[in-house]
Amino acid sequence: MVESQLRNRIGASVRRERTRRTWSAAELARRAGISKAGLSQLESGSGNPSVETLWAIATALDVPFAALVDQGDEGPTVIRAGDAPEVVAGSARYSAALISACPPGARRDLYVVRAEPGQPRLSDPHQAGTIEHVVLMSGSALAGPVDDAQELGPGDYVVYRGDLPHTFEARSAGTSALLISELS
């Protein structure tokens, strides 16, 4: 479940990026492969977008995922463990919480990922040049390119191209990871 404050921030960010391109809601919905009604709800802050929907919108807008969910830089920020607003996946027991977005001109975002065994999180390719770094913090997981995912345990690290299909699959309960997405 996406909390109200985050839903409003996402809605405003999507509307800002869409109008910056002078696209209609119908045009963005078409490009992202989502319904116009769903986009309208999202922009009004009443929708409950999944990770998949937000990635599709970010890709269509050619902006980093973080541009849609970041709270901005308003001074020192402390995010206590478990307090970061999370966006959940629609097809897997997976959530991602943006903990640090890159400032303008830089291209790096940090996420805390929490996942449970079950359906793997399959990700479509992100923007060309995207690289993902994953450090597993707890549990066990299979992560990386769909055709070459690697088994990870606590403290293990994997880096792979995020502009190719990739996956994250929790293999044990309570799996969490630090995911760093960078665009070169």
Automatic annotation (TrEMBL):
<dbReference type="InterPro" id="IPR014710">
    <property type="entry name" value="RmlC-like_jellyroll"/>
</dbReference>
<protein>
    <submittedName>
        <fullName>Helix-turn-helix transcriptional regulator</fullName>
    </submittedName>
</protein>
<keyword id="KW-0238">DNA-binding</keyword>
<dbReference type="InterPro" id="IPR050807">
    <property type="entry name" value="TransReg_Diox_bact_type"/>
</dbReference>
<dbReference type="Pfam" id="PF01381">
    <property type="entry name" value="HTH_3"/>
</dbReference>
<dbReference type="InterPro" id="IPR010982">
    <property type="entry name" value="Lambda_DNA-bd_dom_sf"/>
</dbReference>
<feature type="domain" description="HTH cro/C1-type">
    <location>
        <begin position="14"/>
        <end position="68"/>
    </location>
</feature>
<dbReference type="InterPro" id="IPR011051">
    <property type="entry name" value="RmlC_Cupin_sf"/>
</dbReference>
<dbReference type="InterPro" id="IPR001387">
    <property type="entry name" value="Cro/C1-type_HTH"/>
</dbReference>
